[in-house]
């Protein structure tokens, strides 16, 4: 295991930069859970109730946005992998394109009914 000079500092806890960059993303779901738990225990007549509900609504929106952005990046990464596997076909790399499914299929010959193995990208 090789550590960079920055990682070796005690304040970094021997964690990589990637680990530290994940912390803000991981906080959003924690805040959402904390607010949900807080609202369960908060009396209905509490003056803090409206602010807590609004906060939960905002953090839930942020969590949904963050999750959607992560899914979109994962799909684009998968599409780029397909692009590389196909030898760099230029027309596949397009933000409008989306990899829906991939896998082995068998093509049946119309002439003699024999099966031919194929790999399909949809």
TrEMBL record:
Family matches, as SUPFAM superfamilies: DBL homology domain (DH-domain) (SSF48065), PH domain-like (SSF50729)
GO cellular component terms, semicolon-separated: cytoplasm
DH domain span: 1-69
Top-level taxon of the source organism: Eukaryota
Molecular function in Gene Ontology: guanyl-nucleotide exchange factor activity
Gene3D superfamilies: Dbl homology (DH) domain, Pleckstrin-homology domain (PH domain)/Phosphotyrosine-binding domain (PTB)
GO biological process, one term: cytoskeleton organization
Protein name: FGD3 protein
Gene responsible for this protein: Fgd3
